[in-house]
Amino acid sequence: MTPDLTSSPHHRRRSDRRLVALGAAAAMTAATALAGVLLATTEASAGTLTGSFYRDPTSGVNQWLAANPNDSRASLISQRIGSQPQARWFANYNQSTIQSQVTSYVNAANSVNQIPVLVPYMLPNRDCGGASAGGAPTISAYRTWIDSFAAGLGTRTAVIILEPDSLALQTCLSSTEKADRNSAISYAVTKFKQVNPSVKVYLDAGHSAWNSAADTASRLQAAGVANAAGFYSNASNFRWTADEISFGRNVLTALGNGNLHQVIDTARNGKGPLGSEWCDPAGRGTGQAPTTATNEATVDAFIWIKPPGEADGCAAAAGQFVPDLAYSLAQNGIVTSPPPSPSTVPSPSVSPSRSASPSPSAPPSPSASPSTPPSPSPSASQGTGACSVSYKIDSQWNNGFVASVVITNRGPALTSWTLTWTYSGNQAVTNAWNATVTASGANVTARNAGHNGSIATNGTANFGFQATYSGTNTNPTAFKLNNVTCS
C-alpha cells in the first residue's frame, strides 16, 4: 500500500518471503480460470459480507480524471480504474481532524448504501523506516488516534483493513516493541467493535510468498485476530488470487478458528507478479473487480486495497498518483466492466482538502504494499565476462536493509546456479526470496530456488534478501557464478 505500503502502504523491504513453487504457466491457468468464474458471478455467494463497496469520487484517480478530462489516457483509466471502488487510506497524523475525516467518508458511503473500506495506517515505526515511514509518535498517541478514528465510524457496516505490513514486517522491532504493537492492534480491534458492532476488522497476513502460514497464524493470534473478522492478504502486492486463497486456507487451518475469514487485495494482480520485483513493476494489470461474490466460503471479499496508479516509491513518491502507471494497469488488466450507473455513484469532483496518503510499499517478493532508500549505498555492477551481477540496495534503515540481485548469464545455459560474494563489512543476511542464502562469516552463498534454476545464455535470474548491518553498509565484492568470476 504502500507506506506506500501497497500498497501500502505496500509495503518496501521486508521480512521472510518464501516464493510459492508454482510454475508460471500453472499459475496463469489457475488464476485465469478463477477469474473467469468470479467475473461470471452476479450475486454474493460466500463469506459474511454482502453488498457493494463504496467508490470514492474524491480518490486520487478521480481527482486526476476531473482535472484532465481531455487526456488521451483518461477514458480507459476512468472505465477500468476510476469506476471501481477502492480503499481510503488514513496515513497522515492528524489527531484533531481524523474523526471528522472518517465521519465524512463513512457518511458519503452510507448515503449511497455502499460499504466503505478504510485503511488506518498510523502505527509508530511503520514500514520499518522505508518509503512509507511515519505514523504516530508513540503507542500512547496511536491509541488516542484510534479512539478518534473509531468515533467517526457510525453504526452501519464498514470494512477496516488495519495497518498494512504491521504483522508481516517486524524485523526492525525489538521484542518489547513487538509486544507493544500487538497490544495496540488488539486495542484497535476492540475499540472499533465497541463503537460499531457492525464493523468488519481484518488484520495483516502479508501474502502467499512472504511468511509461512504457520508463522502468519502465530502473528495474527498474538495481535488479537480472534476478536476480528479475520485477515487480509496481498495488500500492495501482485500475487495471483488463487495463491492467496490457498495461502489463506492454510492460515485458517493453523488458526483453528472457524469464525475467521479472509479478504484479498486484487487491485493489481491481474497478471500476477513480475518475478520478485515489488516496486512499480512493469506490465502488471488490474485484477478482479471488488466484490463480495467470491464463491469461496472462507473469503469474504476481493477488495482494491492499494489504489491502482498510486506509486510504490520507485516511479514516484509512495502514494502519489501516476497516470502512466494507471494507464498501463488498465491496459493489462482483466477488469473490462463499464463504469457503475450514475444513479448509484456520484460524479468525480476535485477535493482540494484531500492530500495523497501513502500506502504501504509492496514487499520484495513482491501489500499495497511495499522503495527508494532513505540513505542508499550505491548499486554495484560487475560483469563483462561469463556473467554479470547487479547488486542494488532497495531500502535501508539504521540497522538493516533490503537488497535485490540480478544475475545475467553470459556463458552456456545453466540448469542450476550458485552465486557467491564477500562482504567487507559486518552485514548478515536474515532472510531471502527467490533463492536460498547462507553465510560463513563474510562469505555469502545464494542458490537458486526450485522455480528459477535455469538461465539461458544471456538470460537472467533475480532474487532478493533482507539483512542487518552496523557501521558502513559497503557493497560486496568478488561475485562468482558457479565458481566462475563475474568480471
UniProtKB/TrEMBL annotation:
Taxonomically, which superkingdom? Answer: Bacteria
Domain CBM2, which positions?
380-487
Q: Does the keyword Hydrolase apply?
A: yes
Coiled coil regions, renumbered to chain: none
What are the GO MF terms of this UniProt record?
Answer: hydrolase activity, hydrolyzing O-glycosyl compounds; polysaccharide binding
Q: Output compositional bias ranges, type Pro residues.
A: 360-377
Q: Any idea which residues are catalytic in this one?
A: D127, D165
Compositional bias (Low complexity) spans?
Answer: 346-359
- What UniProt keywords apply to this chain's record, in alphabetical order? Carbohydrate metabolism, Cellulose degradation, Disulfide bond, Glycosidase, Hydrolase, Polysaccharide degradation, Signal
Q: Which Pfam families match?
A: CBM_2, Glyco_hydro_6
Protein name per the record: Glucanase
> Lineage, please?
Bacteria, Bacillati, Actinomycetota, Actinomycetes, Micromonosporales
